[in-house]
Amino acid sequence: MSHSVHAAAPNTEGKVIRWARLYNLLFGHRTARHRRMLDLAAIAPGERVLDVGCGPGTLALAAKERAGPAGEVYGIDAGAEMIQVARQKAAKAGTGVRFQTGLIEEIPFPAAYFDAVLSTFMLHHLPDDLKRRGFREIARVLKPGGRLLAVDFSPDASFGIFSLLIRVITHRLPKSYIDDLVAMMKDAGFSAEVVRAGKEPYAFIRAVSTVPAAAG
Question: β-strands 190-196, 202-209: how paired?
């Protein structure tokens, strides 16, 4: 099967992070959050997984370990610089994870291809219309009953002395932000629930596609 592969970053109205090597240095290591995401997404051996907004590829590489030799893991990102770093990490790790530039609002894969889709701290970079288009695209590429696991900032919580910093990091997101994401997912054809991360300044959203299988 052939996929659309872009030589350069495609155009998008969302924010594109281009300082990939510094980003990888700061955020490119595995964390307990990554393990929790893979647990909540219930990644199983042999599954097909897509990481949307994959950045330097750390989560996708971890997902491949869960999916095993029979599984397929792909990562897409709007930034060509991120994809370059992710490919280098995949080559060094000797995995079969495949990375390519691509957009959440125009995912370069066929319908009903994936068992699970992951998204980490990228949705807040998108205007609301792109979020809605993106969720519809995720619903399209997921199999019926496929899972979406997203994590993003949760500005509705109190973070003590870090409150000011969190407000800056979260781009002045409304306190209803996580609930707004859930509503958009439901509009796109998902059932969704919020899983709080204790005192951490983010929340997980676990969603399941309710879009029926296309008639054959």
Answer: antiparallel
Q: Yes or no: say if 185 and 148 are a contact pair by the CB < 8 Å rule.
A: yes
- What are the residue ranges of helices labelled H in the chain? 20-27, 32-41, 58-67, 80-93, 128-141, 163-169, 177-187
Q: CA dihedral defined by 163, 122, 44, 64, rounded to 10 degrees? A: -110
Cβ–Cβ under 8 Å, residues 118 and 142 = no
Gap between the Cα atoms of 111 and 76, Å rounded: 16
Its pTM stands at 0.84
Q: Summarize pLDDT for 126-172 with one digit per residue, the tens.
A: 999 999 999 999 999 999 999 999 999 887 665 544 444 555 555 56
User: What is the pairing mode between strands 142-153 and 190-196?
Assistant: unpaired
Residue type (1 letter), 113: Y
Q: What residue ranges define each of the domains in the chain, with the CATH number in brackets?
A: 20-192 (3.40.50.150)
